[in-house]
Amino acid sequence: MSPNLIEAFQPLCADVQKEVQKVLKSILLGPMISGYLPQKWIFATSEEVATFCLDISGVASVIEGPVDDSDVLIKISHDPLMQILETMDKPDNKPETLEISFQTRKGEAAFGYMRKRFGL
Question: If DSSP states are collapsed to H, E and C, what string results for 57-93?
Answer without folding.
Answer: CCCEEEEECCCCCCCEEEEECHHHHHHHHHHCCCCCC
